[in-house]
Write a structure and sequence with these properties.
By secondary structure, this protein is mostly helical. It has two domains: 13-76, Winged helix-like DNA-binding domain superfamily/Winged helix DNA-binding domain (Arc Repressor Mutant, subunit A, Orthogonal Bundle), CATH 1.10.10.10; 80-119, no CATH class. Helices cover 59% and strands 7% of the residues. The chain has five helices and three strands, in the order H-E-H-H-E-E-H-H. The protein has helices spanning 13-27, 39-46, 50-62, 80-100, 105-119, and strands spanning 35-36, 66-68, 74-76. Strand 2 (66-68) and strand 3 (74-76) form a beta hairpin. The chain is elongated and about 50 Å long.
Amino acid sequence: MTLKIHIAEGAAPYEQVRSQIAEQARSGELPVGYRLPTVRGLAESLGLAANTVAKAYRALETDGVIETRGRHGTYVAAAGSAATREVAVAAQAYGERARRLGLTQEEALAAVRDALRAAYGE
């Protein structure tokens, strides 16, 4: 696992840790079952406070990307299905709301495309 934190970059260090681990898990660079470093160990190697890494790990666990197994460590979870389910639920709620607001399918899809472009920095 390779992480690079850029302090001068606009994103907070915990968000950089979170997004890089999430992306590496999504791409398969970090396979399901890969054991992550301890919070303290990763914080030391990155020159960050332990609370910063702990915050990133909590967010990743909430998103279903990693799972903590108590004293046995923290591992990359089989998150694809959980993430897909969560997005499907959000999409369903969005579709229902767009319909209630009187948007056409084309208008609703255009709003989603705009939001995704903004989220992914395109």
